[in-house]
Amino acid sequence: MENITVYTSSTCPYCTLAKEYLDEKGLEYTEKNVQKDSAARKELMEMGHMGVPVIVIGEEQIVGFDKNKIDLSIDK
């Protein structure tokens, strides 16, 4: 299984939905809260993103909460 990282913020409802969806699928992931972690915020900006959620599965970056893209990425 590919490593999964979810970049979030504390007030983002789509971040919560994304984490709940990954939990429902029984997938382990690392959460990086860009509000609380300046290094995570810098990582996200270096990838070219300013908003959350960004879900990184292996090398693929999924911007926003997109169930279809998540499913396609984990089924590879």
From TrEMBL:
<dbReference type="Pfam" id="PF00462">
    <property type="entry name" value="Glutaredoxin"/>
</dbReference>
<feature type="domain" description="Glutaredoxin">
    <location>
        <begin position="4"/>
        <end position="61"/>
    </location>
</feature>
<dbReference type="GO" id="GO:0045454">
    <property type="term" value="P:cell redox homeostasis"/>
</dbReference>
<dbReference type="InterPro" id="IPR011767">
    <property type="entry name" value="GLR_AS"/>
</dbReference>
<dbReference type="InterPro" id="IPR051548">
    <property type="entry name" value="Grx-like_ET"/>
</dbReference>
<dbReference type="InterPro" id="IPR002109">
    <property type="entry name" value="Glutaredoxin"/>
</dbReference>
<dbReference type="InterPro" id="IPR011911">
    <property type="entry name" value="GlrX_YruB"/>
</dbReference>
<dbReference type="GO" id="GO:0009055">
    <property type="term" value="F:electron transfer activity"/>
</dbReference>
<dbReference type="InterPro" id="IPR036249">
    <property type="entry name" value="Thioredoxin-like_sf"/>
</dbReference>
<protein>
    <submittedName>
        <fullName>Glutaredoxin-3</fullName>
    </submittedName>
</protein>
